[in-house]
Amino acid sequence: MLLTPRPQAPRTTAARPKTVRVAIALLASAASAALLAASVPQPAAPLGIGDRLFPHLGNPGYDVLEYDIAFTYGGDNAKPLDTVTKIDARATAPLERINFDFSQGNVRSVDVNGAPATFDTSGEDLVVTPHARVERGQRMQVTVRHTSHPVGGKEEGGWVRTADGLAMANQADAAHRVFPCNDHPADKARFTFRVSAPKALTAVANGVPLATTRSGATTTWAYRTEHPMATELAQVSIGRSTVLHRTGPRSLPVRDVVPTKGHKKLERWLKKTPGQVAWMEGKVGRYPFENYGLLVADAQTGFALETQTLSLFEKQLFTRPEFPEWYVDTIMVHELAHQWFGDSVSPRTWSDLWLNEGHATWYEALYGEEKSGHKLRTRMREAYRYSDQWRAAGGPPAAPKAPKPGEKISLFRPVVYDGSALVLYALRQEIGRAAFESVERAWVRAHRDGTATTADFTRLASHVSGRDLRAFFAAWLYGTKTPPMPGHPDWTSEAPGKKQAGRAGGAPGAAGHVHH
Fold this sequence. Notes:
alpha+beta
């Protein structure tokens, strides 16, 4: 702020006292510097919401309400896709600039509320300067015309090249390699996808189909989610695919997207999904979304992924003979369980990842016990045996160590799988089966379509059980050593330094196969 002095009788500079002349000169110099600073644009800088594990992910100052993303695919999965991403958001603070996460594509133009905006890049951010400041509470429609590049391998994430096209694998922080976004699960939004591709191909995305139109040699498919979704859970599949339909519990639409070639050999697995959905509903309540199904990709990713309503699986999981049937069944249930734990109820921060993976592993193991006789207690005792090693290597369940540089997938360590399911087993031992099952149902009901934290789970479990469980969770979730297992004082954990174990309960030949 510059203060305008009151009118006064003119005086020559020479007549002013020296101290006054110096003060005025300094004030004028400061004012000139301030005006100069205000007139010179500050360089673009990457921002973040301060996530402990991914500090530059997400962006402050706005809440995304909806994405509308249009991809044009020419048929070559090594070439960039022409893309238009529209972002409808509400400002939560005055914004001179708007940062989006985006790192893998060329931006041609950006509009904000219909007017051209300037833009720059910094780090993995696209930094947009609108023609006028966006005020707090104001809606803003941002349109970015850009390319989307299918490059990189499974460690980088984003587009995955399949034998006949593309699919997405955006966990944990790779959606911004595909489209500009607020790439953090704390900011969920609804999505509309529009995919144009050669008519011989089929495109499928999260949500329900809106329309399919043909123009010459090109077909355009449109899909929309009916529930908010984290960016890491977005899915678009393009390829020579067959879409199979069946019905689940309460007439739930179940659609599977599979490679057309040899798809009949997958039917013995696909027909299991309605029964698995019914089993999960019996444990935690109604399925939370508009539809469900499997996307079976002819690709080698090394993982399965719970993309919302359309879980991604490698084709070889269902075709390699060394994977026992019970093992494949439990992986299917693992990704299905994520639809409740991780997709409908998403982590507020990535340190809350144990709530996703611990629960999915829990129901995977419980399904294996009830359907195939693989005892949960045996698996949990084995997990307890290695738990201290896992904590030393990867950190405690709710305070995991950051992923290795250049290996984002290394965040998904044994401690967030069986090491976190072990916490749930301890909770059930501590408060009893009935109270535990009530906690589970209350959790997915209270936070449906939202985000939640470890502190939220602690409070809810304490409320439902009628006990203060803060000390229990502090020890089990943040301790460097595994606490004694309630009801099993004879269980022991091997000290760190011995040969590391993989995930408990793995299948023969399944080493290195991670299911997120």
